[in-house]
Amino acid sequence: PAALLDADSSEKVDCDTLQATGHANVFALGDASNAQTANGKHADAQVRFLAPAMQDRLAGRTMPTYKADDTFVFAVTLGRYRGTGQVGSWRLWGWIIRMAIGKHMGTDYAPEIAAGNRTMTEKKW
């Protein structure tokens, strides 16, 4: 419903718990919510927060508080052997991008993500 959306058509959420504003049993994360900018790093952190927090909620315990990390992280490959990126105010060198993502473009662990065995950053969550 339109009452749940902000001006950008994102779900309005409480940034401390990722609960929809005015609805204690509705949660939104990633690019569906207005908690943070829509990128994979934030969605990954929100999933890792919300999975155990939902167990607390269902058990009637107090939910923990989500602590947003808004450090700017960006990396892009420019072909197989080149790339560029930034972490905070630091520029990443092309060889770091090649070693981190240029070799496989993330496809080496895509089956584990699809199976729910890992997130972008956590292997055994």
Set down the secondary structure blueprint.
Blueprint lengths: L12 E2 L4 E2 L19 H19 L14 E5 L5 E5 L2 E3 L1 H9 L7 H6 L10
Antiparallel strand pairs: 1-2, 3-4, 4-5
What does this structure look like?
By secondary structure, this protein is α+β, with helices and mostly antiparallel strands. It is built from three helices and five strands. It has helices at 40-58, 94-102, 110-115; strands at residues 13-14, 19-20, 73-77, 83-87, 90-92. The strands form two sheets. Strands 3-4-5 form a three-stranded antiparallel β-sheet, with helices on one face. A two-stranded antiparallel ribbon has the order 1-2. The longest helix has 19 residues, at 40-58. The model has no long low-confidence stretch (mean pLDDT 87).
Task: Please outline what is shown here.
The chain starts with 12 loop residues before the first strand and ends in a 10-residue tail after the last helix.
